[in-house]
């Protein structure tokens, strides 16, 4: 019998790419491939790329340089290594990738990766294969389902794509061009995926989409359901302990989402709500379609229904035309909101976006200096938020054995890693932990004895939504 062929996949960028990489593994598993952690002994290497900033795109070409050497070595040993580039760089650059890196066999955009087996066959026949169309039928109907063993190996926390693409056209962003127009998956398809995950031990679901709260998928009643209604529906599925969703746009926070936070204890009180800038002038130039005041009002609506809610955000510093005054307004907004965490990036001009044509570039030194100041402020807020957990008892969903022998690590509602000394039986359970100390970004604590802590397995654990 021929040994199975090996697939190595390397993913860059956002959560959607992590999810897409898993679905590509599932697609190729149906074609006889098994995953390997080592690119050098793979028969097929897929780079699942990110185009959001220049640095992310350029990483792909340096990786392709390394793979060229690995492929030559494989050929010397009588092995054929195939190389595919998937994801947003594939979508944006298409055939240009093969021109710059002839070692690549297949280029496949994010909407077409269900065609990977055919594309590989076409490349074997014709030398190269490129597919970057937005096909009329969505790929989800064609993707093979993950096998039980694959779901279990991926752990108790899973992503499910519910929405893809974006119609917002922020002037700095490539997503509307690489991922296409907003599309929402129907509710019953999402429920099927979720049931398969929970049947195999998944306890935490993160619903993902480039603009997830623009979700408007068809419900079983034939109407378009908003995200809040979908969350209410999924909360009924036995086995789910926690629900999350990401990434949201401030403009699309509707009453259904606020009500979901009010009504569903299992919907985690931690919301990623990117704002990008604290200056109305810059928000307008970014085409964000909201003001600082609108953003603060949205935050207040969440806080009114859930006092323990915390926020994270994304910021861009050095957008064209950003003055010191604009940047100070960003710092002031961060002070006003008080974040549990946040990501901040230097503006990176992306070819084809309106902002790339803007002339008033901020100097590299001003950008560097602003990024340091913003990150210092965000870090101080994150440290204060983490320190505030010391001495309290918090619910932790345990995920896996930690690096230190005997320790098990899980996450709090706010995604803070929390470590305890305990038996691996607790993996998959939500248990109260008394937090004793903080080590960098990790909380250390002790399990608080509860009747539920003894003996239950994932399948038999009484913890469902609201635990
Ligand atoms: N949909 C989300 C939103 O509404 O903000 C964000 C999607 S994007 C994948 C993630 C983050 O990358 C953005 O929030 C933004 O902060 C950052 N980003 C996008 N384009 C960028 C660019 N050209 N330069 C620097 N950062 C960028
Ligand atoms: Fe990009 Fe703006 Fe869409 Fe977010 S909302 S994906 S930043 S265009």
How would you describe the overall organization of this protein?
The protein is of the alpha/beta class and 467 residues long. The chain has 14 helices and 19 strands. The strands form five sheets. The chain has a six-stranded parallel β-sheet with strand order 2-1-3-4-5-6, sandwiched between helices. A five-stranded mixed β-barrel has the order 15-16-17-19-18. Helix 9 packs parallel to helix 10 (255-263) and helix 13 (324-337) packs parallel to helix 14 (364-387). The N and C termini lie far apart (49 Å). Mean pLDDT is 93; it is low at 453-467. The protein binds S-adenosylmethionine and iron/sulfur cluster (SF4). S-adenosylmethionine (SAM) binds next to strand 13.
Radius of gyration, in Å, reads 23 Å
Give me the secondary-structure category: alpha/beta
The ligands bound in this entry are:
S-adenosylmethionine, iron/sulfur cluster
Main sheet: strands, sense, barrel: 6 strands, parallel
Total number of β-strand segments? 19
Please state how the strands of the largest beta sheet are arranged side by side: 2-1-3-4-5-6
* Shape verdict: globular
- The portion of residues forming beta strands comes to 15-25%
Mean pLDDT: 93
End-to-end distance, in Å? 49 Å
**Helix fraction bin:** 25-40%
Low-confidence stretches: 453-467
Count, helices = 14
């Amino acid at each position: 019998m021929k040994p199975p062929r090996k697939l190595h996949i390397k993913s860059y960028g956002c959560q959607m790419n992590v999810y897409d990489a898993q679905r590509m593994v599932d697609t190729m598993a149906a074609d006889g491939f098994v995953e390997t952690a080592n690119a050098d002994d793979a028969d097929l290497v897929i780079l699942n790329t990110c185009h959001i900033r220049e640095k992310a795109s350029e990483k792909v070409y340096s990786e392709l340089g390394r793979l060229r050497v690995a492929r030559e070595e494989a050929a010397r040993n009588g092995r054929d290594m195939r190389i595919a580039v998937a994801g947003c760089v594939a979508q944006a650059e298409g055939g240009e990738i093969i021109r710059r890196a002839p070692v690549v066999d297949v280029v496949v955009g994010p909407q077409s990766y269900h065609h990977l087996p055919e594309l590989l066959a076409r490349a074997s026949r014709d030398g190269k294969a490129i597919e970057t169309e937005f096909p009329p039928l969505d790929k989800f109907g064609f993707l093979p389902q993950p096998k039980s063993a694959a779901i279990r190996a991926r752990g108790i926390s899973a992503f499910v794509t519910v929405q893809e693409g974006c119609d917002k056209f922020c002037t700095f962003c490539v997503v509307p061009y690489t991922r296409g127009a907003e599309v929402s998956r129907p509710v019953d398809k999402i429920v099927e995926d979720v049931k398969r995950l929970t049947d195999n031990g998944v306890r935490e679901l993160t619903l993902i989409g480039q603009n997830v709260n623009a979700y408007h998928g068809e419900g079983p009643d034939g109407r378009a359901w908003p995200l809040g209604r979908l969350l209410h529906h999924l909360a009924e599925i036995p086995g789910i302990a926690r629900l999350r969703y990401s990434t949201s746009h401030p403009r699309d926070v509707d009453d259904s989402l606020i009500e979901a936070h009010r009504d569903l204890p299992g919907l985690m009180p931690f919301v990623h709500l990117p704002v990008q800038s604290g200056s109305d002038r810059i928000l307008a130039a970014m085409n964000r379609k909201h003001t600082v005041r609108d953003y603060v009002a949205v935050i207040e609506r969440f806080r009114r229904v859930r006092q323990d809610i915390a926020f994270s955000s994304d910021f861009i510093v050095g957008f064209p035309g950003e003055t010191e005054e604009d940047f100070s307004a960003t710092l002031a907004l961060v002070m006003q909101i008080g974040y549990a965490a946040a990501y901040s990036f230097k503006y990176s001009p992306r070819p084809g976006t309106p902002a790339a044509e803007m002339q008033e570039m901020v100097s590299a030194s001003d950008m560097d200096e602003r990024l340091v100041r913003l990150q210092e402020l965000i870090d101080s807020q994150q440290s204060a938020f983490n320190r505030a957990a010391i001495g309290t008892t918090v619910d932790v969903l345990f995920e896996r054995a930690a690096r230190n022998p005997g320790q098990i690590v899980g996450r709090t509602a706010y995604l803070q890693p929390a470590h305890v000394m305990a038996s691996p039986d607790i993996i998959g359970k939500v248990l109260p932990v008394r937090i004793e100390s903080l080590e960098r970004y990790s909380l250390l604590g002790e399990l608080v004895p509860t009747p539920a802590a003894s003996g239950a397995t994932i399948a038999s654990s009484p913890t469902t939504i609201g635990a």
